[in-house]
Design a protein that fits this description.
CATH superfamily: NagB/RpiA/CoA transferase-like
Helix content: 25-40%
Number of strands: 10
Structural class: alpha/beta
Radius of gyration: 18 Å
Strand content: 15-25%
Strand order of the largest sheet: 1-10-7-4-2-3
Oligomer: single chain
Distance between the termini: 12 Å
Number of domains: 1
Order of helices and strands: HHHEHEHEEEEHEEHEE
CATH architecture: 3-Layer(aba) Sandwich
Length: about 200
């Protein structure tokens, strides 16, 4: 079942439990089946406070982006964007694309979406040598389902394989997306961002 069907089917979990219940040869002590990578990412990303928008095609991506602008009253605002292909793709909303850190929000791609903790893996390919704390507090990340990985190690391996001549620097993850949530000691020193994820199905 595709990610979209799982997300939109309210009976999916109960159906899965019923299927599992039919397996008479499975002991109650048998380890629980691991959720698929897309479900784990969605669950952990939402738990971290991220806002997830699943899109089946580019038209839906543009509609979702328009809804984000409308929800936050970001029309005619400045956008910090270091990717020319993104500024071209999302042109037409009366936005000013520039490289000013004082911009209203940061529009970017990412390296990977990490399932086991719901984080976004970034590198100098997206943020140059900027620290997360320097970037605007609002993020809009554009990614595809093929970028989902199990863990950070897998994400780092992909970065290495895709950049054999020169591995990008400033590799970091962001996973704290709720500005009003109390931080625990694990997130001490991290930068909290209000983050929207536009996820395009490409598998």
């Amino acid at each position: 079942m595709s990610l979209l069907k799982r997300l939109l089917n309210p009976n999916y979990k109960s159906e899965e439990k019923a299927k599992k219940g039919q397996k008479s040869d499975t002991s109650k002590y048998f380890p629980e089946e691991k959720l698929p990578v897309d479900e784990r990412f969605t669950y952990n990303f939402n738990k971290n406070g991220g806002k997830f928008l699943y899109c089946e095609d580019l038209q839906e991506v543009l509609e979702a982006f328009d809804n984000i602008l409308m929800e936050n009253d970001w029309y005619e605002k400045e956008v910090f964007c270091l990717d020319d292909t993104l500024s071209q793709r999302f042109d037409g909303y009366n936005l000013t694309f520039n490289k000013k850190l004082s911009a209203t929000f940061f529009l970017s791609k990412c390296e990977s979406l990490v399932a086991n903790n719901g984080s976004i893996l970034l590198s100098s390919n997206q943020i140059k040598e900027k620290k997360l704390q320097e970037l605007p507090s609002n993020f809009v990340i554009f990614a595809t389902t093929s970028q989902l990985v199990e863990n950070i190690s897998e994400g780092l391996r992909i970065i290495k394989n895709q950049n054999k001549r020169q591995i990008p620097s400033n590799i970091t993850t962001i996973q704290d997306f709720e500005t009003d949530r109390e931080k625990d000691f694990m997130s001490y020193g991290s930068s909290t961002k209000n983050l929207y994820l536009l996820l395009l199905e490409d598998l």
